[in-house]
Specification:
It is built from four helices and eleven strands, in the order αββββαββαββββαβ. It is α+β, with helices and mostly antiparallel strands and 208 residues long. It has a single domain, classed as Mog1/PsbP, alpha/beta/alpha sandwich (Protein Transport Mog1p, Chain A, 3-Layer(aba) Sandwich), CATH 3.40.1000.10. A hairpin with a 2-residue loop joins β2 and β3. It is globular, with a radius of gyration of 17 Å. It starts with a helix and ends in a 5-residue tail after the last strand.
């Protein structure tokens, strides 16, 4: 058990080093399991519909499903690594006629605080036995992006450890999440493909 824990810590540090993070982040405490998802992140109905998007897919990505709750994609890494997945969804709609103060605006997307977005990832990791590695603010394709990186351990049935990349961005008054999940060995390539996807992601403006 001790050797397995030491191996998990070593893999976590290696992942942090890959993304340029110098300060380890503690695994979330079990007490945070009682935190509920903020009401601002409730998925609006009938937001995503087939044909609403102009989004060329990266190589090896194929559409698995498209519906009102989002779109999912299968990813077949070219190096023979296990198949990966990606999911796109609307997680919030910016409130109308609300202008936050500049100091708060730097810490939010579409009226949703980064801390709330990060908490949704923590809650997901608690239910899957994983942990959050770190988060960062970025600009991808001219869009502000809040990225949260997490990891889940290998399973008893032989499934390898998984790296989860959560990308949150606001476009046309909506906060979207693009989530990729892949084996550690292929994560770097899939992360680059996800950023390419976000760079060309141009959803239609919502009907008024």
């Amino acid at each position: 058990m001790l050797r397995r824990r030491q191996a998990m810590i070593a893999r976590r540090r290696a992942l942090q080093a890959r993304y340029g993070f110098s300060t380890p982040v503690a695994q979330p405490k079990v007490a945070e399991n009682h935190v509920t998802m903020p009401s601002a992140l409730a998925l609006p109905e009938n937001i995503l519909r087939e044909g609403n998007f102009a989004m060329p897919l990266p190589n090896n990505w194929s559409t698995a499903s498209v519906g009102k709750n989002g779109s999912s994609f299968r990813i077949t890494p070219p190096d023979g690594a296990p198949e990966a997945q990606a999911n796109l969804a609307v997680v919030a709609v910016a409130p109308a006629n609300v202008q936050p103060i500049p100091s708060e605006q730097r810490k939010m997307l579409g009226g949703v605080m980064f801390t709330d977005l990060r908490r949704t990832v923590i809650d997901k990791m608690i239910t899957t036995g994983g942990w959050v590695v770190n988060d960062r603010q970025r600009e991808i394709g001219g869009h502000r992006v809040f990225e949260v990186i997490a990891q889940t351990p290998a399973s008893n049935d032989g499934k390898p450890e998984q790296v989860w990349n959560y990308y949150f961005t606001e476009i046309n008054g909506r906060v979207y999440s693009l989530v990729t999940r892949s084996a550690n060995a292929s994560n770097q390539k899939i992360s680059a493909d996800a950023e390419q996807f976000l760079s060309t992601f141009k959803p239609m403006e919502p009907k008024r």
